[in-house]
Amino acid sequence: MFVLSILLFWLPIVGPLLAGFVGGRKAGSLGNAILAVFVPAIIFGIALFFLATLLTGFPLLAFAASAGGFALATAHIGPLLLGAILGAML
User: Fold this and answer.
1) Do 22 and 37 meet the contact criterion of CB atoms below 8 Å apart?
2) How many Å apart are CA 63 and CA 61, to the nearest integer?
3) How far is residue 79's CA from residue 5's CA, in Å, rounded to a whole number?
4) Is 7 exposed, middle or buried (0-12, 13-18, 19+ CB in 10 A)?
5) Which residue range forms the structural domain that includes residue 58?
6) Is 32 exposed, middle or buried (0-12, 13-18, 19+ CB in 10 A)?
7) Residue 78: how many CB atoms within 10 A of its CB?
8) Residue 77 in this model has a pLDDT that exceeds 90
9) Which DSSP symbol is given to 8?
10) What is the pLDDT of residues 12-54, one digit of tens each?
């Protein structure tokens, strides 16, 4: 699901929805599909914070820089979660 969302990033709403649908079908159950949505988002948020800290050297500035990336990741989760739920239910 993570790889598909990276490949389909250029489609604003349809890309994550399609990636979630395919990932939900591959996950099999609803619980696994929801887990497959949130685990990469959490890992991405943590990695973004640590990489921003490495680039800036100031944890407070890194927190502000990673907040923008967290907002983008959160906006991406909505259609991905909807697609995963639909894919797991069908």
Assistant:
1) no
2) 5
3) 11
4) exposed
5) 2-89
6) middle
7) 14
8) no
9) T
10) 889 889 999 999 999 989 999 999 888 887 887 778 777 777 7
Angle between helix 14-27 and helix 30-56 axes, rounded to 10 deg: 130
Rounded to two decimals, the pTM is 0.77
Domain count, the chain: 1
Burial classification of residue 71, based on how many CB atoms lie within 10 Å of its CB (0-12 exposed, 13-18 middle, 19 or more buried): exposed
Q: Please give the Cα distance from 62 to 59 (Å, whole number).
A: 5
Enter the tokens of residue 84: 């995963």
Q: At a CB cut-off of 8 Å and minimum separation 6, what does 44 contact?
A: 69, 73
Cβ–Cβ under 8 Å, residues 3 and 67: no
